[in-house]
Design a protein that fits this description.
Elements (H helix, E strand, L loop, with lengths): L3 H17 L3 H4 L15 E2 L2 E2 L1 H45 L4 H15 L4 E6 L9 E3 L2 H5 L8 E2 L6 H5 L9 E9 L2 E9 L12 H16 L2
Parallel strand pairs: 3-4
Antiparallel strand pairs: 1-2, 3-7, 5-6, 6-7
Helix pairs in contact: 3-4, 3-7
């Protein structure tokens, strides 16, 4: 059995250590999980127990920190998965040997590689003939790219019957990409059954990188 004097001595050592190492809970936040905090702030004659207040505040701050770290880690993992998909798609595009194969990759594989449920490809003239390319009026399509020159994420329902004529009721979110090819334009419409797959505030830096890869490859295959 631990004697009272020994117990008091241990407490003093711990207290002295904590006073000298004020950042201990920052370096090792998991230690807070082992602490017991008062369930509520005790008040005596309307005076708040300062120690109780501090302990509750520390616990609250720690819970917020854990939540923020969890969100950051989740976002980081999601971004990493996106990077891998974009890299895989880019390599597949760069390895195509001819124009027809490039179009096959864009139309046939891009939706799968980017985890989309539906993808449609449009071109602004009849110069390119491909079974999976539909012709579209450039003025009509360009109206959707007023905010950003080569991506559209505003989720306007007006775009559904235009870019997903046979699947408009199934699409819950979508993204449009504009790919420049000489004086003409490719328009890629990628849709998802998941309403949160594509959102208005979504970052598009990786997608814009992929667009540049496609444009470079189109030029090289002329």
């Amino acid at each position: 059995m631990i004697k009272k004097n020994d117990s008091d001595s241990s407490k003093k050592i711990i207290i002295q250590f904590l006073k000298k190492n004020k950042d201990i809970f920052i370096k090792y936040p998991e230690l807070i999980d082992y602490l017991n905090f008062p369930p509520q702030i005790n008040k005596v004659d309307k005076v708040v127990d300062l120690n109780a207040y501090r302990s509750i505040k520390i616990k609250k701050d720690y819970d917020q920190l854990k939540q923020q770290m969890s969100e950051i880690l989740q976002a980081g993992m999601s971004h990493l998965v996106s990077q891998k998909r974009i890299l895989k798609t880019s390599l597949k595009i760069l390895n195509t040997k001819n124009f027809t194969k490039l179009i096959d990759v864009i139309v046939g594989d891009l939706g799968t590689l980017l985890d989309c449920d539906y993808i449609n490809c449009f071109f602004t003239s009849n110069k390119i003939q491909h079974k999976n390319i539909n012709q579209i009026d450039n003025k009509l399509a360009t109206n959707f790219f007023k905010d950003k020159p080569q991506t559209y994420l505003n989720q306007s329902p007006k775009g559904l019957p235009i870019f997903f004529p046979n699947k408009s009721k199934l699409i819950k979110s979508y993204i449009l990409l504009k790919i420049i090819y000489d004086s003409d334009r490719f328009y890629l419409a990628m849709g998802s059954k998941n309403p949160s797959k594509f959102t208005k505030d979504q970052k598009v830096d990786l997608i814009e990188y992929l667009i540049q890869i496609i444009q470079i490859k189109l030029i090289n295959l002329k």
